[in-house]
Amino acid sequence: MDTTAKLWDTQSGAEICTLSGHSAEIIALSFNTIGSQIITGSFDHTVSCWDIRSKRQLYTLIGHRGEISSAQFNYDCSLIVTGSMDKCCKIWSTDNGKCVGTLRGHEDEILDVVFDYTGQYIATASADGTARVYNAVTHQCVCKLEGHEGEISKISFNPQGSKILTASADKTGRLWDSKTGKCLQVLEGHTDEIFSCAFNYEGSTIITGSKDNTCRIWR
Predict the structure, then answer these.
(1) How many beta carbons lie within 10 A of that of residue 185, not counting itself?
(2) Residue 191: is it exposed, middle or buried by C-beta count within 10 angstroms (0-12/13-18/19+)?
(3) Rounded to two decimals, what is the model's pTM?
(4) Closest by Cα among 113, 36, 52, 60 to 82
(5) What is the pLDDT of residue 130?
(6) Helix residue ranges per DSSP H, the chain
(7) Phi-psi category of residue 202: left, alpha or beta, with phi > 0 → left and psi -120 to 50 → alpha
(8) Phi, psi dihedrals of residue 120, rounded to the nearest 5°
(9) Do residues 48 and 22 touch, judged by C-beta distance below 8 A?
């Protein structure tokens, strides 16, 4: 199993470098918003942060007790949030790589985790069939999103931060109010599990990708 990440030149398609250091496969990648650093999340239970210019590993985030499923910087690049198969998420400072908070409450593996665009809230998706919204400062759960009948594999805030989109193994997507957790709409039509979902830049259009080999666009 390849345990590396590679950087590529988008114009020439040439490999720039290989980032080596993990001892198991890498399944999560994220650039910070200014493009100076990248994080890699691995089944070895750790997340590594790399400097793009020097290609050097800056630090390793150690603390999860299960495989890493998701990792993301917040907008101002001051924090990193990670989700794990150990049923919890952790918040880390990018200044020193130290854990500054742990988000608990899910009863099964965390499959996805995201910051909103302000960095004030974090949304989590779990194999327990629920999603949660947490305050990124107090680490308290703001609301719980319940209604799916299968695991939730993907979660996303709209650009305004007012709505949340989830994709589930129950073949539906759902649109939620991010402050109250109320389900606003159920997106039905796929004939198999939905693995991915996203808003467009304006938040006016949604796309979902499914195991049924189709993508659907919703307005």
Answers:
(1) 13
(2) exposed
(3) 0.95
(4) 113
(5) 98
(6) none
(7) alpha
(8) -85, -20
(9) yes
Q: What is the CA radius of gyration of the chain?
A: 17
Percent of the chain with pLDDT over 90: 100
Residue bearing tokens 């039905």? 188
135, 120 contact by CB (below 8 A):
yes
Looking at residue 118, its amino acid is T
Instruction: Please report which confidence band the pLDDT of residue 1 belongs to, taking 50, 70 and 90 as the band edges.
Output: confident
In this structure, what token pair is assigned to residue 111?
A: 């499959």
| Distance (Å, whole) CA 190 – CA 27 | 25
- The 10s digit of each residue's pLDDT in 58-67 is 999 999 999 9
Amino acid in position 148:
H
Q: How far apart are CA 5 and CA 165, in angstroms?
A: 29
